[in-house]
Design brief:
Helix content: 25-40%
Structural class: alpha+beta
Radius of gyration: 29 Å
Largest sheet: 5 strands, antiparallel
CATH superfamily: GSPII I/J protein-like
Strand order of the largest sheet: 3-4-5-6-7
Oligomer: single chain
């Protein structure tokens, strides 16, 4: 009768070590896969935010409307388009799917605050102290937000509107002037410099 031979202690220890090594390799592979998935999701969300911001700028700026708005206080008017450290303008085409009693014109502002780009709009066209504008953060990690304006003579201006022709208070016509094109430059920490040239309709 043959004597059955079992595993020796050395063989069992070798098997345990091999199993442990395989388990560690499988765990690390799973961790790397999860990290890669999270990075892909983060990058995809960032790209989507950048694309949405550019699309928003194109839709807004291509529909600039020559409508100055009243100052919140006093009889004065703000230009239809005003751009320096921030960009404020009147745009047409504000959709109204539920039929609210409001204009299809909209007053919009883009501003860079502490590395974050915001888009704001007012519920009423003419400026009011209350209610405050509705604000939405579009992007973070923004290094610079710059806008240039092409006038009717195809000359680029760093700010808008151009200097008053009368040398003093702007006329109603000058307040309603629009550029024929707008160049928007966004400098982002991760994407670098992005530039878009937008033609103004009409």
């Amino acid at each position: 009768m043959k004597r059955q031979r079992g595993f020796t202690l050395v063989e069992i220890m070798v098997a345990v070590v091999i199993a442990a090594v395989l388990a560690i390799m499988a765990f690390e592979a799973m961790q790397n896969a999860l990290k890669s998935r999270d990075r892909i999701r983060t990058n995809a969300a960032r790209l989507q935010s950048v694309q949405f911001t550019m699309r928003s700028l194109v839709q807004d700026l291509s529909q600039l409307y020559p409508r100055p708005v009243r100052e919140p206080l006093g009889p004065g008017y703000q230009p239809a388009v005003a751009g320096g450290t921030e960009l404020v303008f009147t745009r047409s085409g504000w959709s109204n799917p539920v039929g609210l009693e409001r204009s299809t014109l909209q007053r919009v502002r883009y501003s860079l605050v502490d590395g974050k780009l915001f888009r704001e709009y007012w519920m009423a066209l003419d400026a009011q102290i209350y209610p405050p504008p509705v604000s939405r953060q579009l992007l973070d990690d923004v290094v610079n937000f710059k806008v240039r304006y092409m006038d009717a003579g195809r000359t680029w201006q760093d700010s808008w509107p151009p200097a008053a022709q009368s040398g003093g208070t702007r006329t109603q016509r000058e307040l309603g002037l629009r550029p024929i094109a707008v160049e928007v430059t966004l400098e982002l920490k991760d994407f670098g410099v992005l530039t878009r040239l937008i033609e103004v309709t009409g």
